[in-house]
From TrEMBL:
GO molecular function, one term: DNA binding
Signal peptide per UniProt: none
UniProt keyword annotations, A-Z: DNA recombination, DNA-binding, Transposition
Organism: Microvirga aerilata
Pfam families xref list: DDE_Tnp_IS240
Protein name: IS6 family transposase
The keyword DNA-binding appears for this protein: yes
The organism's place on the tree of life at top rank: Bacteria
Length: 238
């Protein structure tokens, strides 16, 4: 395991290997923190569900940050959609964009679903190193998208010849991606704060990108390679 400032596990009571098991299992499978507590207890490791929650809050966004430089380049067409996530009893919006092959371009959790939120999401996506400027952007009938893209074209942020298509039936591929994220969310019965939701979803999305084969050395169907890749990202011997 790495030492110094690059070691995110320094000072923890449990070993990096145990923490990494928890992070990988929780972000990959639809289980609750109490389920995970029982799984560790079955293996002779006593760790409270509140500790597991703190681990996810610490390492899920760290994993997402570290995986970004390793992602394959996406293609030009964008498929964009948003879905609902419950946070503290209220609905917020998870924006997501994928390319024609289903590779994740980017995601954003937003309190509002309007042109300002759409522009913020597009700007975030355009900043990613694995993203190319879109030739087409396929969205649903949300009236905020035409407003956002017109403003961004005028500002030179989006190619002025990029085509916006409001055709919901073409967005099945991104709707499937939403199901990939909603499945592990359900056992937790929603999030208690916007910050914890954002940090946990960052981890879900990072693992989803790895499992979709968006990393060169971690093929989509090779769980062992994915495990080793995540361990190496966080400086742990697999």
């Amino acid at each position: 395991m790495k030492t110094g400032k690059n070691n995110p596990f320094k000072g923890r009571q449990f070993t990096a290997e145990i923490i990494l098991w928890a992070v990988r299992w929780y972000l990959q499978f639809p289980i609750s923190y109490r389920d995970l507590e029982c799984m560790f207890s079955d293996r002779g490791v006593q760790v409270d569900h509140t500790t597991l929650f703190r681990w996810i809050q610490a390492y899920a966004p760290e994993l997402e940050k570290r995986v970004r430089p390793h992602l394959r380049m996406t293609t030009g067409p964008w498929r964009v959609d948003e879905t609902y996530i419950r946070v503290k009893g209220e609905w917020v919006y998870l924006y997501c964009a994928v390319d024609a092959a289903g590779q994740t371009i980017d995601f954003l959790l937003s309190v509002k679903r309007d042109a300002t939120a759409a522009k913020r999401f597009f700007r975030k996506a355009l900043k990613q190193s694995h993203t190319v400027r879109p030739r087409t952007i396929t969205v649903d009938k949300n009236a905020a998208y035409p407003v956002a893209t017109k403003a961004m074209k005028r500002a030179g942020e989006i190619w002025r010849f990029a085509k916006l298509r409001q055709l919901k039936f073409l967005n099945n591929i991104v709707e499937q991606d939403h199901r990939r994220i909603k499945c592990p969310v359900r056992p937790g019965l929603g999030f208690k704060s916007f910050v914890s939701a954002s940090q946990t979803i960052a981890g879900y999305e990072a693992v989803a990108m790895i499992r979709k084969g968006q990393v060169l050395n971690a093929p989509a169907n090779d769980m062992r390679a994915q495990r080793n890749f995540i361990a190496a990202l966080l400086g742990v011997a697999a």
